[in-house]
Design a protein that fits this description.
alpha/beta, Rossmann fold, 4-stranded parallel sheet, 13 strands, 14% strand, globular, binds ligand F0G
Length: 423
């Protein structure tokens, strides 16, 4: 008999496991998902009253919704009061994308500067609850930064597997700073992912990639908090980038649960945007067939993934919310990034695929210009400073710099400065 109210279920073969069984995949090989036992007692109104509380479990934009996420005891939580990120009205970006209004939920404002903290607080809390001493992940950078931080907070050892040379400096420096053991794998993310799953199984290390069902439960809170920001109005569209495909599944799962529990009257549609060089979901979706892995290449290194772990449940989530998938080139990503950055908001390249994809979907007539649209920016502008500097210096290979703001070299005299400022 389990002591917890949830089970770990497989959507592919309908198997069900105890909620505390230490496994993230079904015997059939598919990733497992948390199934909650019945409608939770938390209502949106009660979630709103928690906005006035100073308790860590209420301050957190994940645990504020704990009955919808995972009903752990507040004493069990490893939290950095993640979430409560801003939802910006972005008129300049809206005009550029061709829509009347655009709201951008900036998940780069999380404690380690990406959306990953929302899933990580849940996965690391579960690692502690299960008595684990160490955690591991493969990462294009943000997951490892987040895991390293939460593991340090929890007193757990952290093992990071990253593709050598393809992780942005902001992220690599975080993993090192927070004290993780960082393995730079000769190979891409997909290779690192295969290796870390093997290691976790052999060595009893707790895997916290989004194949871990508890990561997904935490990431659902992006959708919950977005609705709370909107005073529980349901937008027409949520647009976000897709790489390993855990996040779009998480948001779809969470919102579908809210709908099924009777807390919201309808579901928003979801648009997943992939880099054209890392587009296996786009191909599977548009050709209506199973995903075929690709060798991924894009300067948006966060989503440089060719064999995404969660593709089946991602497609299932998209079917549930009448979603769509779009692809954008690196040039389109960098053009969109120039707009997001110049609006004073800023985000890393992968995040700006959101805005690039939105522009394309509006031009194609899929998203109406007067729709109620929320985009998710997944990571902070400082995650990838190298790409920003190279872009403004016109040094990004294969990319035309359309909005350059390069620094100007000036002699240290008043006259020279005045001259440089054009009088
Ligand atoms: N945006 C950013 C900034 C990311 O870091 C990621 C994924 C995504 C979007 C895509 O989300 O994988 O749920 O579809 N980064 C992972 C990592 C793979 O290791 O940090 P997804």
């Amino acid at each position: 008999m389990s002591t917890v109210s949830w089970t770990l279920d497989c959507a592919e073969c309908a198997a069900s496991y105890d909620g505390l069984e230490e496994r993230h995949r079904c015997e059939c090989g598919a990733p497992l998902d948390v199934r909650h036992g019945g409608a939770p007692s938390l209502s949106p109104a009660t979630a709103d009253t928690r906005l006035l509380s100073r308790r860590p479990e209420d301050r957190s934009g994940v645990w504020r919704f704990r009955e919808w996420v995972l009903p752990l005891d507040p004493a069990e939580l490893v939290t950095r009061k993640e979430g409560h990120t801003n939802l910006y009205d972005a008129p300049q970006v809206a005009a550029w994308a061709g829509v009347e209004r655009l709201l951008l939920k900036h998940e780069g404002e999380n404690p380690t500067a990406s959306f990953k903290d929302r899933g990580m607080t849940v996965a690391v809390s579960m690692a502690k609850k299960l008595g684990k001493r160490s955690v591991a992940c493969a990462s294009t950078g943000n997951t490892s930064a987040s895991m390293a931080s939460y593991a340090a907070a929890a007193g757990l050892k952290a093992y990071v597997f990253i593709p050598e040379g393809k992780v942005a400096f902001g992220k690599l420096s975080q993993a090192m700073a927070y004290g993780a053991t960082t393995l730079q794998i000769a190979g891409d993310f997909d290779r690192a992912m295969t290796l870390v799953e093997q290691l976790a199984a052999d060595e009893g290390v707790y895997l916290v990639n989004s194949v871990n069902p508890f990561r997904i439960e935490g990431q659902k809170a992006i959708g919950f908090e977005l609705l709370q920001d909107l005073e529980w109005a349901v937008p027409d569209w949520i647009v976000l980038p897709g790489g390993n495909l855990g996040n779009n599944w998480a948001i779809a799962k969470g919102l579908a649960e809210l709908y099924d529990w009777g807390f919201i009257p309808r579901l928003p549609r979801i648009a997943v945007i992939q880099a054209a060089g890392a587009n296996p979901l786009y191909t599977a979706f548009t050709q209506r067939r199973a995903l075929v892995p690709v060798v991924a290449e894009t300067l948006a290194t966060a989503i440089r993934i060719g064999n995404p772990v969660s593709w089946q449940r991602s497609l299932r989530g998209l079917a549930r919310v009448d979603g769509v998938v779009e692809q954008v080139s690196d040039q389109e990503i960098m053009d969109a990034k120039a707009e997001v950055d110049a609006a004073g908001i800023g985000a890393e390249p992968a995040s700006c695929a959101t805005v690039a994809g939105l522009k394309k979907l509006v031009a194609a007539g899929v998203i109406a210009p007067d729709a109620h649209i929320c985009g998710v920016l997944t990571g902070h502008v400082l995650k990838d400073p190298g790409t920003v500097v190279d872009y403004h210096l016109g040094k990004l290979a294969g990319i035309e710099t359309t909005r350059a703001h390069p620094p100007v070299q000036v002699e240290g005299t008043v006259e020279a400065v005045k001259r440089a400022l054009g009088g």
